[in-house]
Amino acid sequence: MPLITPPSPPSDDKRWKIVSGTMRRHGFARSALIETLHTVQSSFGYLDKGAVEYVAKSLHVPLSQAYGVVTFYHHFSLKPPGRHTMTLCLGTACFIKGASRLIDDVEGHLQLKVGQTSRDGGISLMTARCVGACGQAPVVLADSELLSEMTPERAVEQLERWTVE
Ligand code: FES
To answer: Which of 13, 29, 104, 125 is deepest in the core (most CB within 10 A)?
Structure first.
């Protein structure tokens, strides 16, 4: 059987490596559709046209089916994230060091769930599996800035700084 090369990702953004890693783990099987779309959502905060097309093509799923999934589940968003994004790492090291409490406090403070954006479009809340800074766990990305050994209090302070901008 000839080897089929998967399509190129929509950009050279490193987050596409995480997405293609999910597909590779599943052998680019169609059944990986939902999990892959989840990976895009949690990495980028939303799925644009290019993302849905890339995933559908890579997994050999009809585009209409991929859109069907995206529009069916409330978790998925076709709209871009807020002006700021807080990404909480949920990898093992961060989890052991209290990431779940961080999430509870941040969700409570913003009255939002992970994957959502505040109504004013100011802040989106995302999670990542591991951002490669396990020695500084628990970590949070405030936009692209890595904040190490994070506490719920410091996370809330960061959110408040964004709110008054
Ligand atoms: S588990 Fe959080 S940085 Fe690795």
So the answer is: 125
